Amino acid sequence: MADDGASVLLTAEGMASLKAELDDLVKREKPALLTRLAEARAHGDLSENAEYHAVKELKALADARIIELHGVLGRAEVFKPDPAEAAGRCVFGSEVEVKVQQDGRKEQRRRFKIVSSYEADAANNSLSMESPLGSELLGKEAGDVVEIDAPAGLLRYEIVAVSY
Asked: Fewer CB atoms near the end CB (10 Å): N or C, the chain?
């Protein structure tokens, strides 16, 4: 994610998750990597020490993620949609139930929560508002239809319900 200085919308759950990840990185993962790095360094010649270089790379990735999380959390605003203001429309933080139809296949029902890209997780049905489907759903309400041309074919999403 690029850091452009703009505020970042997060759900309360997303904020808690990112804080927990940062806490784990700082208190558990980074100290463990520093220990592993010292052990690998003790094995001698660093130019041919694959373990040292691998752990050094893991530490650099952890450091980069820590910096990113500090930046995101420093600009984060927790947002909870106001049902009266949203008036039945899909907005950031809402849950959307859809019927999905793909090129003649059996219709499926899915439920998504619209979140920021920092907390999106397809395995947990958290959909980024910046994703093709997330951006198409924003502003829509029950009964509206959204079509997405995906590599697997045309996907048709009919909004069944929006909740907050």
From this structure: N
